[in-house]
Specification:
alpha/beta, Rossmann fold, two-stranded antiparallel sheet, 4 helices, 7 strands, about 25% helix, about 20% strand, globular
Length: about 170
């Protein structure tokens, strides 16, 4: 896993999911409560990264109005990180690692509804179900593509995302 230089005392590990073998959840329930997933793929590296992090930043292009399929595979496979919760919130049965999260997304379109489904999915699955603490998001619409030229570097969103990253944790966090 490549490590980015430290800034403000933070260490960053970047995992590019597009080049990983991350299969979808089988729904077999064999991993429940720390038993581990029976599938042997690149998810084992992500499980280790999750154990050693405070913040997970999901970076995704918009695909069919939501996060990419490989990110959804990762989210479903996080079931293997849960433990039994004697006082489950919202009627759940399990507890997940206590982590912070953030979302970075880009899309060709820039309509008022472009990110509506993706943001709803992120908030429902990650903030509500996993109970991770949402630190915010940058939604970069109008970046081109879908038959036209891509031009995110002309939109100002790269600077916005950089500033967002520098300020996720402030002095009071």
């Amino acid at each position: 896993m490549p490590r980015a230089p430290r800034r403000k005392g933070h260490e960053v590990t970047s995992i590019f999911l597009g080049s990983r073998d991350i299969r979808c959840c089988l729904g077999c329930d064999q991993c429940r409560y720390g038993k581990g997933c029976l599938q042997q793929d690149d998810m084992t590296e992500i499980y280790e990264a999750i154990k050693n992090t405070d913040l997970v930043v999901f970076a995704s292009a918009l695909r069919y109005w939501t996060l990419t399929g490989v990110i959804k595979n990762v989210l479903e496979r996080l079931y293997a990180t849960c433990s039994e919760d004697p006082n489950p919130p919202f009627g759940r049965y399990e507890k997940y690692p206590d982590l912070d999260c953030a979302l970075l997304m880009s899309a060709a379109d820039d309509n008022w509804w472009t990110f509506e489904q993706a943001l709803s999915y992120y908030q429902h699955v990650i903030s509500n179900y996993l109970s991770w603490h949402d630190k915010g998001h940058v939604l970069a619409g109008g970046c081109g593509g879908c038959g036209g030229p891509k031009h995110i570097e002309d939109t100002g969103y790269l600077d916005t995302a950089y500033t967002f990253g520098k300020t996720i944790y402030t002095a009071q966090d």
